Amino acid sequence: MAGPRKLGEFEIIRRFFAPLAAQEPGAFALGDDAAVLSVPPDRRLVVTTDAVVRGLHFLAPDPPDSVAVKLLGVNLSDLASMGAEPMAYTLTAALPEDLDEGWLRGFADGLDGMQREYGLSLVGGDTVGTPGPLSFSLCAFGLVKPEAELRRSGAREGDRIYVSGTVGDAALGLRVLRGQLGMLTGAERQWLVDRYRRPRPRLALGGRLHGLAHAAIDVSDGIVADLAHICEMSGVGARLRADCMPLSAAARRALDKGAVSLADLLVGGDDYELLFTISPDKAAVLAELSDELACPLAEIGEIVALRKGEGSRHPVLVVDEEERVLDVGGGGFRHF
Ligand code: ADP
Ligand code: MG
């Protein structure tokens, strides 16, 4: 099969990328120098970007459509955590000489599926050759009403902390790809790998949290690290209840078999769930929203005041099932 660089830049754009821009008139079928997009007067533009490099963020055997799903998915998760609705994205592709056309076809199909599911369009980008590894940079644009914008900075003492979905699955999926967790069934292992490779950005939830959430973030670095980001931006501390963590059946089994610890799940990244805080008197409204969206939400702790002189300590305390306090400073768990 011919390498895509033998196809030439314009043929690659025409064949693989232009069809993804067909729904957005302002993309001019990728035939002009830039796209022209409308922002309604009552909306603000939300912009985020992420890059992936083969060998670092994805591996050669990864299915190409899953590389696309993850790249677009992590950007859409950022939009979700800001309360925004997806509109468009640009894509910069750096293609090595030996990349085959079939790979690019799979990648474009992955983008196509995500566009249809989440309602956005490719509107431009750049295509270059590289002597280095295959890599992509994607920039996503979203729209949000000013009053619906979610930030990391609004958490208040007494707020309850919630997370959507389940915690730690993606980290276990990565372990499966490394040949671990052989005690789980094939179906469980596949499900965990999918959680790692194919995040499902919580856009419907993010779009409904205005007036409810005081602070929000998406879980990319692990629940403890991302909660710490909320704490730092809000000037507060947090108490997380390890026994309240929502776990998938597969994660529960891995835990029960002693293959992983709860700490592994709390510091594992890549889940792309939403983590947010609300006032306790909004719990009933949130429960209704959870039902309406069929989106599981679990209360996992509360926001507390930062104690004096604690500036250098980790702002997140984790309490285990025996009410012992675990400290997550210095990158690992240790008992007080
Ligand atoms: P210029 O040289 O003016 O930057 P290019 O030749 O790089 O234009 O690109 C031509 C058109 O194709 C532009 O509209 C650009 O946005 C689009 N394009 C190029 N590469 C990609 C890509 N990987 N994905 C989407 N659109 C692309
Ligand atoms: Mg260019």
Order of helices and strands: HHEHEHEEEHHHEHEHHEHEEEE
State the oligomer: single chain
CATH superfamily caption of the largest domain: PurM-like C-terminal domain
Radius of gyration: 21 Å
Q: Give the count of helical stretches.
A: 11
Adjacency order of strands in the biggest sheet: 6-8-5-9-7-10-11-12
Q: Say which molecules are bound, naming each kind only once.
A: adenosine-5'-diphosphate, magnesium ion
Tell me, what is the CATH class of the largest domain? Alpha Beta
Share in β-strands: 15-25%
Largest sheet: 8 strands, mixed
CATH topology of the largest domain: Phosphoribosyl-aminoimidazole Synthetase, Chain A, domain 2
Structural class: alpha+beta
Overall pLDDT level: 93
Question: What would you call the shape?
Answer: globular
Q: What is the number of E strands?
A: 12
Number of domains: 2
Uncertain spans: 330-336
- Helix fraction bin: 25-40%
Under the CATH scheme, which architecture of the largest domain would be assigned?
A: Alpha-Beta Complex
How far is the N terminus from the C terminus? 60 Å
